[in-house]
């Protein structure tokens, strides 16, 4: 029987030291990957980790009020913007502006306060199988001035002198400042099948429907037949003006013009 050989303790100690050393290295590597607040970090990384707080939407701008000098005073009876009287005797200030306009098709526009009623009226007219079209609406002072001057030139070409030509022109085209189109509350509506601005427009299906129903939407036929002595404008079976439902029904049912209604 052989005697067991005793191992020297030196190799065991060497192996134990090597294991301790290796464990220390692993611990050091792991600790180096941990971020500390006082260490530098790429600004882009910080921005990604801490995004800027969401920006709230900027508040809507406060509408700029219309200066008092630009508000119509002549003919304004205090009843409201929808009943301002504009005619040959009651002119708008030269710098009058509509507070807000809503753009329509074909480059037309109307006072935004009257737009919902106009849209409803046009929609219902079309729903009845008809084809109304707006051929004129809001006009600037310069636009009205151009139209009036063009009409004056037509009368001058017929041999009238300046004063007579202007008087004749005013019967068909309002002088600048005296047109309801400058208020943004008037629209000229014609039948798509017949677009001439003449008396026979009253016989079209569109005009028959509008004359019967316009008051339901707050509109009136502004220049009815037989009222030119009061309105200063010849009969126009295409010109509609917004005044509000209550006034419109009283005017249309009573066979009145706006001047008569406001004088009561």
Structure write-up:
This protein is of the alpha+beta class. It has two domains: 154 residues, Muramoyl-pentapeptide Carboxypeptidase, domain 2 (2-Layer Sandwich); 38 residues, no CATH class. 37% of the residues lie in helices and 11% in strands. It is built from nine helices and six strands. Strands 3-4-6-5 form a four-stranded antiparallel sheet. Strands 1-2 form a two-stranded antiparallel sheet. Helix 4 crosses helix 5. It is globular and about 50 Å long. 26% of the residues are buried. The N terminus is likely disordered.
Radius of gyration: 41 Å
Helix % is 25-40%
Mean pLDDT, to the nearest integer, reads 78
Q: What's the structural domain tally? A: 2
CATH architecture level-2 label of the largest domain: 2-Layer Sandwich
| Shape label | globular
- The CATH topology annotation of the largest domain reads as Muramoyl-pentapeptide Carboxypeptidase, domain 2
Secondary-structure content class:
alpha+beta
What is the beta-strand fraction? 5-15%
What is the spatial order of strands in the main beta sheet? Answer: 3-4-6-5
The CATH first-level class of the largest domain comes to Alpha Beta
Instruction: Summarize the helix and strand pattern as letters.
Output: HHEEHEHHEHEHEHH
N- and C-termini, Cα separation: 144 Å
Uncertain segments: 1-7, 20-79
Total helical segments: 9
Q: How would you characterize the largest beta sheet?
A: 4 strands, antiparallel
Number of strands: 6
